[in-house]
Automatic annotation (TrEMBL), chain A:
The lineage of its organism: Bacteria, Bacillati, Bacillota, Bacilli, Lactobacillales. The chain crosses the membrane at residues 48-69, 138-163, 175-195, 201-218, 257-280, 307-325. It comes from the Bacteria. PROSITE patterns: ABC_TM1. InterPro entries: BP-dependent_transpt_permease, MetI-like, MetI-like_sf, OppC_N. Keywords: Cell membrane, Membrane, Peptide transport, Protein transport, Transmembrane, Transmembrane helix, Transport. This is Oligopeptide ABC transporter permease. It is a multi-pass membrane protein. It is found in: Cell membrane. Belongs to the binding-protein-dependent transport system permease family. OppBC subfamily. One of its GO terms (cellular component) is plasma membrane. One of its GO terms (biological process) is peptide transport. Residues 136-325 form the ABC transmembrane type-1 domain. Coiled coil: none annotated. It comes from Schleiferilactobacillus harbinensis DSM 16991.
From TrEMBL, chain B:
The lineage of its organism: Bacteria, Bacillati, Bacillota, Bacilli, Lactobacillales. Pfam families: BPD_transp_1, BPD_transp_1_N. Its main location: membrane. The keyword Repressor does not apply. NCBIfam families: Opp3B. InterPro entries: BPD_transp_1_N, MetI-like, MetI-like_sf. Residues 93-294 form the ABC transmembrane type-1 domain. The chain crosses the membrane at residues 9-27, 99-120, 132-153, 159-184, 229-251, 271-294. GO terms for biological process: transmembrane transport. It is a multi-pass membrane protein. This is ABC-type dipeptide oligopeptide nickel transport system, permease component.
């Protein structure tokens, strides 16, 4: 072995230093993305979610603009013009030409020329288009506000329960267990019986029952987060629990919160419609998608269009929210994608 | 295991006790009395109040109510004089149970099928169609779906009876309307599970042994993907109960859902309280059974459950 070493006869000057550019090796070709940028990029690749997002934006803007540009007063009754079919100007296309069973209903009811109802009128002669617009706005308002309360209660409850741990956690979890063993809707119905039916009580009732899922998810995540190094470090450095919650926990919980919120909105829309439908929701004459569906169902066999229009709106809304929520979940949590 | 089950039953009873108490006091909070018709003379009202035990102090009413519940006595209906709540419920629970069970069976079976097909043909048009179908099923409110089914299939095409409760044929449409939500949820869940299972090692092994795709799916993949479906039976039961409230109304079915809505509009408090208790009992018992069942199917769950 010693032989070979001497035979080699290689000195240090036999090696030549090849210039290397260590910086070039370390260069990251793609732009570096933050977590949210990455999530948005993934969301944009999801066509369904993107289309849903724009549909929701458009519906939201139209519903909001209808405060100022409503085609007619949604509550103004005109008893001579009841149950008119849709009519779009002088277009002679079936279903939107004002004819029903071959009879020009507008001429029959003595509607003056130049007066059109794009979606027809309801049983009190109120303009359906205005009512659908107002109804969409009211339903969205209820759903968004209820979801906001629900989110606030759920996040705080979950963080406190998970962060405190011990007896506090046990008691808080028992309370949740009891609440969740009564069907949500039963609680909502009981609450609406006790308080006067109306906008406020519906929002409160939906918010009071919906936060349980959010609280559970947030608690589970908090339990995981609170043992991680960055939280320990913050604790060691003497930060208060409140500050840790806002600075460290909530930002890390944000994807869970956003996803859960997006799933809560459609269920709140559904709840409102459901309550109004069984007659304990919004009192007349307030229009919401639920009251419109309820009115429409009563005359479904004779005037199907009065159910179909609000039904289309609620289905499109729920579909868009569900698809967007699915897309957001896949975007924030690529593992759930299964591809 | 026995200790775990006993502990769970203890919690169940505590939960039901609290639910009963809350319902009772909420009902006491309601303004006015059920007998506020100005035409009834005061003496009559006093007799009515005495008959229903409403002249007693609240704590005594509460005690009576609780003792009654323990004996399965939920008091008398205000609306239907002389009929006990238990009798009222017992005559109406049949159709509701039948619809619920039918809807659950159809929903789960079709959902499993749809989810499995979507997973096997992952990322093809079959998958996309099945997924869109499931999302639409989740997005159409069940009462809208029920009304549309009634309008097209029963009124326009006269394929089924429009409403009422008269034999199996009249249960088809309400079952379909109720089955939509469980179907959509099961399909979604099944697809996720099946995709997971299909990429696991034992499926690779089965494939490498030369089994046909059908054998692999039927013998290995389906069975293992179906286990977690058990966990969504609880939420599914909730869906069905809520669905029954509106679907029974649309199709005029004499079930407990219709009774509940009717009692709300007529302020028939004893019936509302009784039905609330019934719904809570059904839900808690279903969840308990599902949890215990799951422990038997999947030993890992049982161990971690006992560890806590």
């Amino acid at each position: 072995m010693a032989d070979t070493k001497e035979n080699l006869q290689l000195g240090p000057d036999a090696f030549k230093h090849v210039a290397t550019n260590t910086q070039a090796q370390e260069k990251i070709a793609a732009p570096s993305l933050t977590f949210s940028q990455d999530a948005i990029r993934r969301l944009k690749q999801n066509k369904f979610a993107l289309i849903s997002f724009w549909i929701l934006v458009i519906i939201g803007i139209v519903a909001l603009l209808s405060i100022w540009f409503s085609p007619a007063d949604p509550n103004r009754q005109h008893l001579a013009y009841t149950h008119l079919p849709p009519k779009w100007g002088n277009l002679n296309i079936p279903f939107i030409n004002g004819y029903r069973n071959g009879i020009d209903m507008y001429a029959k009811n003595g509607v003056p020329k130049g007066t059109y109802f794009f979606l027809g009128t309801d049983y009190l002669g109120r303009d359906m288009l205005s009512r659908v617009l107002v109804g969409t706005r009211v339903s969205l308002f209820i759903a968004l506000l209820a979801t906001f309360f629900d989110l606030t209660i759920g996040v705080f409850y979950g963080i406190i329960s998970g962060w405190k741990g011990g007896t506090t956690d046990t008691i808080m979890q028992r309370i949740i267990e009891i609440i969740s063993s009564v069907p949500n809707l039963i609680v909502v119905i009981l609450m609406l019986l006790v308080f006067k039916p109306g906008l406020t009580s519906i929002i409160l009732a939906i918010a009071m029952t919906g936060w349980v899922t959010m609280a559970r998810l947030v608690r589970a995540e908090t339990l995981q987060l609170k043992d991680q190094e960055f939280v320990l470090a913050a604790r060691t450095l003497g930060e208060s629990s409140t500050k840790i919650a806002f600075k460290h926990l909530i930002p890390n919980l944000s994807s869970t919160i956003i996803i859960q919120t997006m799933f809560t909105i459609p269920s709140a829309i559904f709840f409102e419609a459901f309550l109004s439908y069984i007659g304990i929701g919004l009192p007349a004459p307030t229009a919401s998608l639920g009251t419109l569906l309820s009115d429409g169902q009563k005359v479904l066999q004779i005037y199907p269009s009065e159910l179909v229009f609000p039904a289309v709106v609620i289905v499109v809304l729920m579909l868009a929210f569900n698809l967007l929520a699915d897309g957001l979940r896949d975007a924030f949590d690529p593992r759930s994608d299964n591809r | 295991m026995v200790k775990y089950v006993l502990k769970r039953i203890g919690y169940l009873l505590l939960t039901l006790f609290i639910v009963a108490s809350i319902t009772f006091f909420l009902m006491k909070l309601l303004p006015g009395t059920p007998f506020n018709n100005p035409k009834i003379p005061a003496a009559q009202i006093a007799i009515l109040r005495k008959q229903y035990g409403l002249d007693l102090p609240v704590w005594q009413q509460y005690l009576n109510y609780m003792v009654g519940i323990a004996h399965g006595d939920f008091g008398e209906s205000y609306q239907f004089a002389g009929q006990t709540v238990s009798y009222l419920i017992s005559t109406r629970i049949g159709p509701s149970l039948q619809l619920g069970v039918q809807a659950m069976i159809i929903g789960t079976l079709l959902g499993i099928l749809l989810g499995a097909i979507a997973a096997i043909r992952k990322n093809t048009w079959v998958d996309a169609t099945a997924t869109i179908f499931a999302i639409i099923g989740r997005s159409i409110p069940n009462f809208v779906f029920a009304a549309l089914l009634q309008f097209w299939l029963a009124y326009k095409w006269r394929l089924f009876p429009i409403a009422l409760w008269d034999g199996f044929s009249s249960s088809i449409l309400p079952t379909l309307a109720l089955a939509m939500a469980p179907l959509a949820n099961t399909a979604r869940f099944m697809r996720t599970e099946m995709v997971d299972v299909l990429s696991s090692d034992y499926i690779e092994l089965a494939k490498s042994k030369g089994e046909s795709q059908w054998q692999v799916v039927a013998k290995h993949a389906m069975r293992n993907s179906m286990i977690p479906i058990v966990t969504i039976i609880g939420p599914m039961a909730v869906d069905l109960m809520l669905g029954s409230l509106v679907v029974e109304n649309v199709f005029a079915i004499p079930g407990i859902g219709q009774q509940f809505v009717q009692s709300i509009t007529t302020n028939d408090y004893p019936v509302i309280m009784g039905l609330t208790m019934l719904y809570s009992v059904m839900l808690t018992v279903v969840i308990l059974i599902v949890d215990i069942l799951y422990g038997f199917i999947d030993p890992r769950i049982r161990l971690s459950g006992e560890g806590n």
